[in-house]
Design a protein that fits this description.
210 residues; mainly beta; nine-stranded antiparallel beta sheet; nine-stranded parallel beta sheet; 48% strand
Length: 210
């Protein structure tokens, strides 16, 4: 089966516009005609769409980026989510591995991971729920484990069903049958087997064997 390059380009551009929230108006003038300096490129670095006036969007190995050429923009990539307007303190927001940061420069406010403290928790009736922030928990074999916290670290034996939400949580198990993860910067690892991934949503979440 042969697919024309033009068709591939059109498909790629559609993906960029849909993911970035842009529309074809980016490439058109006030009267609906194509802008003279508008451009679309498809290459090894991904897809880029621009209107020749600084407004554009790209989809590549580093994620999705949208900007207007004046410092206003948003990006979604391996380092998390960043939104800014280029006007300094209070204008920028980022969510990444180091936590949440609001502002730019001396007036910025940051909320990052804090030291963890040990929390005693058992697998009662085959289930365990971890909701404590900055908790460090050791669990035995457990049929159902739910982690709904922030900056928690869980070390466990054999887990049947694992659900992780929140941010900056880590779960290290001997094995996991099924796992569902959402939120941001969560990490799930297992030593043996291969779990069924029911859901993997959010930003910068990791699921892998160790």
């Amino acid at each position: 089966m042969h697919i024309r390059t033009a068709s591939l380009s059109a498909l790629a551009v559609s993906v960029v516009l849909a993911v970035s929230g842009c529309s074809l108006d980016t490439l058109r003038g006030d009267a609906g005609e194509a802008k003279k300096d508008a451009s679309v490129s498809l290459g090894a670095d991904g897809v880029k769409v621009g209107d020749g006036e600084g407004n554009g969007a790209s989809l590549g190995p580093d994620g999705v980026k949208v900007g207007d050429g004046e410092g206003n923009g948003a990006s979604l990539g391996p380092d998390g989510v960043k939104v800014g307007d280029g006007e300094g303190a209070g204008a920028d927001v980022s969510i990444g591995p180091d936590g949440v940061k609001v502002g730019d420069g001396a007036d910025s406010v940051a909320s990052g991971p804090r030291p963890r403290s040990a929390v005693e928790l058992s697998c009662s009736d085959g289930a365990a729920l971890i909701t404590q922030v900055n908790a460090e928990v050791d669990l035995p074999d457990c049929a159902v484990v739910k982690v709904s916290a922030a900056n928690a670290q869980v070390t466990a034996g054999v887990i049947g069903t694992l659900t992780v939400t929140g941010t900056n949580n880590e779960v290290h198990a001997r094995s996991v049958s099924s796992v569902s993860v959402s939120g941001a910067n969560n990490k799930v690892t297992w030593r043996t087997g291969r779990p069924s991934v029911v859901q993997n949503q959010g930003v910068n979440n990791e699921l892998h064997s160790r």
